[in-house]
Structures are given as C-alpha cells and as structure tokens.
Amino acid sequence: MTHGAVITREYGIPSVVGMDNATKLIKDGQSVLINGTEGYV
User: Fold this and answer.
1) 1 pLDDT exceeds 80?
2) Do the beta carbons of residue 29 and residue 35 sit within 8 Å?
3) Which one of 3, 18, 27, 37 is the catalytic residue?
4) The dihedral of CA 11, 13, 19, 23: what is its sign?
5) Where are the domains of the chain?
6) Can 3 be counted among the known catalytic residues?
7) Which GO terms describe its molecular function (predicted)?
8) CA pseudo-torsion sign 24, 34, 11, 19
9) How far apart are alpha carbons 25 and 9 in whole angstroms?
10) What mean pLDDT, rounded, does the chain reach?
11) Looking at the whole model, is its pTM more than 0.85?
12) How far is CA 40 from CA 2, 15, 19, in A?
C-alpha cells in the first residue's frame, strides 16, 4: 500500500499531512477548514 502523501504528490492533489496531535486538538463533530494548497488546517 502507498502512503497518501505519495499519491497526492504524484497526482498533484493538494493535501495536508503530518499534523501533530490532530486527534487531540480536533474534537468529535467539530468543523475544520483544510487548505491543501497552502497546507494548513
């Protein structure tokens, strides 16, 4: 299986990867804005 970051790079799809403590910072049901082009959440 290939890591998602490799797929997004190969296909030129914007993505955000490697966000430290994401499961602790983002609460269940919380809305988040993700900008893959600029790489922020």
Assistant:
1) no
2) no
3) 3
4) negative
5) 1-41
6) yes
7) kinase activity
8) negative
9) 26
10) 86
11) no
12) 23, 9, 9
